[in-house]
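As a warm-up, study this chain.
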Amino acid sequence: MTYFGSSASRSADAAAGPGRVLLASPRGYCAGSDRPVVTVEKTLDRYGPPVYVRQRIVHNTHVVRALERRGAVFVGETDEVPEGAVVVFSAYGAAPGTHTEAARRRLTTVDATCPLVTKVHMEARRFAREGYDILLIGHEGHEEVIGTMGEAPDRIHLVGGPDDVPYLQVADEGRVVWLSQTTLSVDETAVTVHALKARFPALLGPPGDDICYATRNRQAAVRRLAGACDLVLVIGSRSSATSARLAELAVLAGVPTAHLVDCAEEIDPAWLRGMSTVGLTSGASVPEILVAEALDRLAAHGFDDVEVIRAADEGQRFAPPPGLTRS
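Now compare it with the structure written out below.
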C-alpha cells in the first residue's frame, strides 16, 4: 500500500460508514492494456507453454501471476529466452536492437506493443531522419522510454522534468522537437513543455497528443470526483506509473488522503472510519474484477451506495497482432 496525503485527513477513531462510493469512469483496463494480455493468452493457445514474455506484459501483479499460471515465463531480456522459443514483446515497446537480437536467436516473436507507443516510435524515427534533436519527456529506466530512445539514441535527450531543461545541449536550437512517454501526468507534462518552449522558442511538438487517451481520461475522472471525497482509493500495482499518478493527482485535486492498493485485501477498514464519501478508481492495467472486489469490501463496511462519475466514454479496441484472432 502506498499513501498520499497529509495529516489533515480525518481521524481513524470515528465509526466507519454508512457512506457512498464515487466510482470513476473510465477506469481500469484500456485497449492498450487489454491487447497485450489477450495477445499472451492467444499465443499460449496457439503455441502452448512455455511462452516467454519480455518485461512485464503490463504493470499489474495480478495479471502477471495469472498468466504465469497458464505457462507464461517473464524475462528481462531476449538473451534469457532459449533459442528457437516463442517470445512476446510487452505493451511498452522494444528498441530496434531487441528485435535484431531476437532474429539472431531464431525466436518466434509476437509484438504486443501498444499502438499508441508505436506511434511515438514512428515519430522519433521520422524526426531523427529530418535532423531534429528530440527531447523525450519521460521517466528514466521505464521500459517505454528505453524502447523509444533506442530508435535514435544519438538524437534523443531524456527530460525528466523542468529541472532538466537548463542543462540540455542540442546541435541546432532551431531544429528541436518534444515527444513524451504515453503514461505521464498531463499537468506535469504541460509544466515541462512550458519550460522547454521558454528555452527553445522554435520547439516543435508531436503531430498529435503522445499522452494516450486512456491516461487523460482516467486522470480527468479522478479530478471530477476528488473534490467531493474524503478519501480516494486507487487500485493498481506500485510498479504502475499510471496508477501512482492517479493517487498523486487525487491529492492535488483536493482530496485529503489517497491510497494506492494492489487489491481489496489491502484496504484498511481504519481508513474508512469517519468518512462519508470514498472515491474509487483503478489504473489502466487493472482488470475490473479487482475493482469489483474492492466494491464488495467497501460495501461490507457500510459503503454500499455507489455513484458512477463519468468523465468520458471509451469504445476503443485494438486488434491482436497478425496471426492471432480475438474470440
